[in-house]
Write a structure and sequence with these properties.
mainly beta
C-alpha cells in the first residue's frame, strides 16, 4: 500500500493549481446575420491569415442568407477572454461585405453600432463564446 504524506499532497495540489491556472484562455467569436427582410442577402468575406484555420483557403467565402433566416456566417477561435471589441470587432476580417441582387443595403456593416454583442458562454474552466449579430430589416434595404 502506498502512503502519501501531507507535505506531498500539498505539493501536488499546488502544482495542479499552477498548471490549470497558467493555461491561456480561449475565445470563440460567432458572427451571425439575421435577415428579417424579404430579400436574399449574400455575405462575402475573407479572414486574415492569422485567424482562419490552417486548411482554409485564402479565397473569399460567400454565404447566402435567405429571407426570414438566421445564419452564422463564420466562427473563429483565438486566445483571449470574452469582451466587446467595439471598433475592432472586425479585426479578424480581411474583407466583409453584404449585398443583395434585388436591393441595396443602406447601413454600414463595418460599423459596430449596427451589430448586437452578446456573451454566449463564459466560465473559469470553459472556452468563452461571444456573438456579434447583425439584424437586417426591410427598412435597411432600398429597392
Amino acid at each position: 500500500m502506498i502512503y502519501i504524506t501531507v507535505k506531498a499532497k500539498i505539493v501536488v495540489t499546488v502544482l495542479l493549481v499552477v498548471l490549470l491556472s497558467s493555461c491561456d484562455p480561449g475565445l470563440i467569436n460567432h458572427y451571425v446575420v439575421e435577415n428579417k427582410s424579404e430579400y436574399v442577402i449574400e455575405a462575402s468575406f475573407r479572414l486574415k491569415s492569422g485567424h482562419r484555420k490552417f486548411d482554409a483557403s485564402d479565397t473569399i467565402q460567400i454565404v447566402q442568407i435567405l429571407p426570414q433566416t438566421i445564419v452564422e456566417i463564420i466562427e473563429y477561435g483565438e486566445i483571449g477572454m470574452a469582451h466587446n471589441k467595439t471598433q475592432q470587432f472586425l479585426e479578424a476580417f480581411d474583407t466583409i461585405t453584404l449585398h443583395s441582387i434585388d436591393a441595396s443595403i443602406k447601413i454600414d456593416v463595418r460599423n459596430w453600432a449596427n451589430w448586437k454583442y452578446e456573451v454566449i458562454k463564459e466560465g473559469l474552466f470553459s472556452i468563452d463564446e461571444v456573438e456579434y449579430r447583425l439584424v437586417l430589416n426591410n427598412k435597411d434595404l432600398k429597392k
